[in-house]
Design brief:
The chain is built from four helices and no strands. The chain has about 140 residues and is mainly alpha-helical. The chain starts with a helix and ends in a 27-residue tail after the last helix.
Length: about 140
Amino acid sequence: MKWYLGVWKQYATFKGRAQRREYWMFLFLNMSFILAMALVAGIVGIFIAVVPLKMEGDSVMQAGALAAGLVTFVYSLAVFTPALAVTVRRMHDSGRSGWWMFVPLVSFILLCLNSQANNNRYGPRPNDGERPQGGTQVA
């Protein structure tokens, strides 16, 4: 959870570097939250449509889908800037410009690469729990 909150603390920071773990943990937790919110909103939407409005059939499913879609859309708007910022910082960590994220297959490969071992033009290497180049864990 610290990785997710850490990205929110740097909400619109496009300078610097983000290590691989920070990016992927943010992405995983973000997708988990979207799935959970869509599920809960869908259930609540169906419950609201059935109980007070006495709707039937397709109207109930449409109400659930509308509620789920609305909640996930609002959350996605809120998380857009932090997700963009952490992606740019992750590109910086591999020594590339943030513009590479707009090249789909190449950007995925770059997002999976390890950090550059030393400082680069985007700043010092973050070492907040990721293994150093030697393969031993830092205490």
